[in-house]
């Protein structure tokens, strides 16, 4: 949870101290950035050189303090077009060298101003390279950022950080999902209808489907199978989202019902983990996760290597060396991360269902994986035929 006090224009010109405290006792001292106050979350690092606006508004980052590994952040300011959801979801933001003045024709205001407006507490002026190396060696961990009057003796701040809940076991998808269904209309001629289960969906995802003639019905995470099939879907999509997939029994039950009806199914990120659980595989927490827009993944069905956008701290525990028997037929690992052999995709061989662990909507990120939306369209075409 984040609490903050918003500064007025004159106060923000002052250099206020800030402290980042990790649960293992490591402390970094810097300057306040964004809102002033205190915040708690899981400290993680993101390796993207660009795309901070999409990162900050990605619901998958709920309750996480994001460390930007790129040394300078804020050069392009903040615009009104690139948000991926209705607000920032990060608990806090950590940067080394914030831009003093934004320089981009699309910018409406500075990143600092937007962080203040949305109450996101941050810290700047620290050695983010040292922090990233620490997290990579020790793993993602609980942390707190404190600035201004929130700064207290180190021992007191550390005790408060250590009193925070862990990410493992956290059920967060319901707090970021929509509470009311809405429709994203097809662009051009409507070809298909898709029911998209919002577990923390990014705005670009239904847009990518709409570009392919799909009318997308975005539904709350708590919908029933009856709610899903009330829209007469040609396919069902399960989105990205935050938290531990081991807590997502409701979405697993919903996906099981979809698989039983053999409806074409596509999942990304959290949706990939839900498919893994529905097929009988386990999930586990990664040491420090994959976050950024430069992660190499191989599509094992084609041998092609893609540069992809990631944001996940959990993964599916499925065998890489064989086809598995599941309650819904044979399944195999379709994609794998070339850095560490983490499962990055699953597909069923006996019915139309597949998923990937990364973000093919490319917001922000490369477009290597855009074909996955076309693959989903092909499944729906095949089922209709």
Structural description of this entry:
- Helix 9 packs across helix 10.
- Strands 11, 12, 13, 14, 15, 16, 17, 18, 19, 20 and 21 form an 11-stranded mixed β-sheet that branches.
- The N and C termini lie far apart (49 Å).
- Strand 18 and strand 19 form a beta hairpin.
- Helix content is 23%, strand content 33%.
- About 3% of the residues have low confidence.
- The chain contains 11 helices and 21 strands.
- With 385 residues, the protein is an alpha/beta fold.
- The relative contact order is 0.13.
Measured between the Cα atoms of the first and last residue, the distance is 49 Å
Radius of gyration: 21 Å
Number of helices: 11
Provide the helix percentage. Answer: 10-25%
Give the percentage of residues in beta strands. 25-35%
Q: Give the helix/strand class.
A: alpha/beta
Average pLDDT confidence is 95
- Main beta sheet: 11 strands, mixed
Number of strands: 21
Tell the overall outline.
globular
Low-confidence stretches: 4-13
